[in-house]
Design brief:
5-stranded mixed barrel; elongated; alpha+beta; 2 helices; OB fold (Dihydrolipoamide Acetyltransferase, E2P)
Length: 133
């Protein structure tokens, strides 16, 4: 009986390549979604909504934050979940209307740049969104 040794070798090589690709791809995705760039500290910022970017893969809330008296406002970029995730929680593109006054609880960037992960928000009328306790 004749066997095809070349097939077995190609099958093994292909299997190793597929396994390696899956491992590398999984680590890349996990690193992207780990949120390691954000501190675990919770900080509050207050300001006015500039824009709510309700787009994939992550939504972004642009907030103009007052700094010291007389100083120019600082624009913060706050990252949140995907539109699909947020839509299931009742969040809509109109939830963060431009011009609305808001206080946000955020996980700031570890490097101190004006960006953060979203925790929760409270609007001037008392309405809350996210994890506001």
């Amino acid at each position: 009986m004749k066997t095809n040794g070349g097939f077995a070798v190609r099958f093994i090589i292909l299997s190793v390549c597929v396994a390696f690709s899956a491992l590398v791809g999984e680590r890349t995705v996990a690193a992207h979604h780990a949120g390691t760039m954000f501190s675990e500290d919770v900080k509050e910022i207050s300001g006015v909504i500039k824009e709510f970017q309700f787009t994939n893969p992550h939504t972004w809330i642009q907030v103009m934050v007052e700094t010291k008296a007389g100083a120019p406002q600082q624009e913060w970029s706050v990252e949140w979940g995907s539109p699909n995730q947020l839509g299931r929680r009742g969040v809509r593109p109109s939830t963060f209307k431009p011009g609305a006054k808001v206080t946000m609880r955020i996980n700031p960037m570890r490097d101190g740049s004006p960006a953060a992960g979203f925790v929760g928000a409270k609007f001037a009328d008392g309405t809350t969104v996210g994890d506001w306790k």
